[in-house]
Amino acid sequence: MEYTKDDLIDSSIVQNLIDLGGDEGKGFLKEIIDLYIEQYPDLLNNIKSGSLKNDSVLMFQSAHALKGASLNVGAKELALLCKKVELKGKENDMSGISELIIAIEKVYPVTIEELKKMC
Description:
Blueprint: H1 5-8, H2 11-20, H3 25-52, H4 56-73, H5 76-90, H6 97-117
Helix pairs in contact: 2-3, 3-4, 3-6, 4-5, 5-6
């Protein structure tokens, strides 16, 4: 599936981050995005690990954390996918998790590309 910038990014959140940074707004946004990029691999690995071990608590907690981080940077499609994983973990439902993880892995790089364009 092809995504547009509007599908991936909540521009109002990104603009709020730029405004929050004051005179260094775009630099502040870049720092926030860099922190998000730094967190992503561990959180995704924990989601994967939870799904492979049938550890719904680990999967739920990691998806919840990645959802929150995604919302903070305006990555709305990623947040939506993480919410789906989070709910499945909460309900101890492992069906369809592999597909959701694949979707997260596909959406992440294009989201980061769009976010970086905004810096």
